Amino acid sequence: MIDQLLRFTPILKQKIWGGEKLNQLLHKNSDNTNIGESWEISDVDGDESIVSNGVLRGTTLRNLLKECKQDLVGNYVYETFGDEFPLLIKFIDAKEVLSIQVHPDDDSAEIQESFGKTEMWYVVQADKDANIIIGFKNNSNKKEYLQHLADKTLPEILNFDEVKRGDVYFVPPGRVHAIGAGLLIAEIQQTSDITYRIYDWDRKDVDGNYRELHTEKALEVIDFSAKDSYKTSYLKEENISKEVVSCPYFTTNIFPVRGEVKVDLSSKESFVIYMCVKGEVTFTYKDQQEVIKMGETILVPACINDVIVLSTGSSELLEIFIK
């Protein structure tokens, strides 16, 4: 049995579109510039998270799962995903707009021996007039899409949403998307690093080369239909955890905290991840206390049935699990 709350050392990724917010706002303490992503919890090959606290310090998430199995993730999750941790948890800083891209579903990704990529975004901070690209403005088709792609006018047929702090977007496989410049995002996704890059604004990498595009692969998975709205609506209530997004791969709740709250996790047959997206929260389990500030993450193993959370001010958590 795992008898502790788990913290992990963030894995920081330099990106050509990355900026300084992960250092300046989320205190990731990197000497490098252009840090675009902080992988908070990861079981991606070559990027396995390492426990940073308690008696398990230095253990990889992968080895922990192989040893502890259901105690870590819960019976249903272990039966479904086995020794692969099913989620990848990130903070993303887009100083510049990301490439326009699309992700495959599980069936399409099987060829590459990987999970597909269903994900969601929570906007932690947004500069004035910052926007995201999400889906098509109107129903499109392969012919129209390819013509605009060839003419380098693809953005003309895509939907742009101006966003603010607290906005949520669910991004299923097949939905064309791009995070715009000036956004700090919390991202929850399936454990997968598969992305089909469609258009990269004709920019070059640090070596002066254009990044690879995946035009043919993207065509196989793009959903050309338009939606009336792409933003996810949700309600908040102080000291109550309320559902924001739920899909077969993850459920994410919003949990505003003020004062002390005892959290009963016994009904969840899953690990629970908390991402702090505002303020500072103290977690207490038995004699263990862990303070997580905005931009930090903690994992509660499935075998732990309750924790106490405390915020002396007004804080907000994302509560993530599988049901």
UniProtKB/TrEMBL annotation:
What are this entry's molecular-function GO terms?
mannose-6-phosphate isomerase activity; zinc ion binding
Report the superkingdom from the record. Answer: Bacteria
Q: Where is the Phosphomannose isomerase type I catalytic domain?
A: 5-112
Span of domain Mannose-6-phosphate isomerase cupin: 244-313
Pfam family example for this protein?
MPI_cupin_dom
Q: Which residues bind Zn(2+)?
A: H103, E119, H177
| Active-site residues (renumbered) | R197
Any one GO biological process:
carbohydrate metabolic process
Cofactor(s) this protein requires = Zn(2+)
How many and how are cofactors bound here? Binds 1 zinc ion per subunit.
Entry keywords, A to Z: Isomerase, Metal-binding, Zinc
Q: What is this protein called?
A: Phosphohexomutase
> Which source organism does the UniProt entry give?
Tenacibaculum caenipelagi
